[in-house]
């Protein structure tokens, strides 16, 4: 994961499933492409929105951070 490109929060926000086709979320400084997940259709997953850093929101989720193992890392969040 060390060779991943860096993206700003603004660049991440553009991948919200509405402004661009890509649907990305960040967790612990890593950005994941969740575009292929039916659970992230239109950039929304329950009360969570794509294009954001979800690190602080995960403790309220009914799953662990292992859920991110299903998704491809596409970058690092610059200054997380």
Describe the structure.
This protein has 80 residues and is mostly beta strands. It has a single domain (6-77), classed as Cytochrome b5-like heme/steroid binding domain (Flavocytochrome B2, Chain A, domain 1, Roll). Helices cover 6% and strands 25% of the residues. The chain is built from one helix and six strands, in the order βαβββββ. Strands 1-6-3-2 form a four-stranded mixed beta sheet. A two-stranded antiparallel sheet has the order 4-5. β4 (44-45) and β5 form a beta hairpin. The longest helix is centred in the first third of the chain and has 5 residues, at 9-13. It is globular and about 30 Å long. It starts with 5 loop residues before the first strand and ends with a strand.
Helices and strands in order, then pairings?
Elements lengths: L5 E2 L1 H5 L10 E4 L2 E4 L10 E2 L2 E2 L22 E6 L3
Parallel strand pairs: 1-6
Antiparallel strand pairs: 2-3, 3-6, 4-5
Describe this protein with a few key phrases.
single chain, Flavocytochrome B2, Chain A, domain 1, globular, 1 helix, 80 residues
């Amino acid at each position: 994961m060390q060779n991943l490109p860096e993206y700003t929060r603004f660049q991440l926000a553009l991948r919200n499933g509405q402004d661009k086709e890509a649907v990305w979320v960040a967790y612990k400084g890593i950005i994941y492409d969740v575009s292929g997940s039916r659970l992230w259709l239109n950039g929304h997953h329950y009360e969570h929105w794509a294009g954001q850093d979800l690190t602080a929101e995960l403790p309220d989720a009914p799953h662990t951070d292992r859920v991110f193992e299903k998704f491809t890392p596409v970058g690092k969040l610059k200054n997380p």
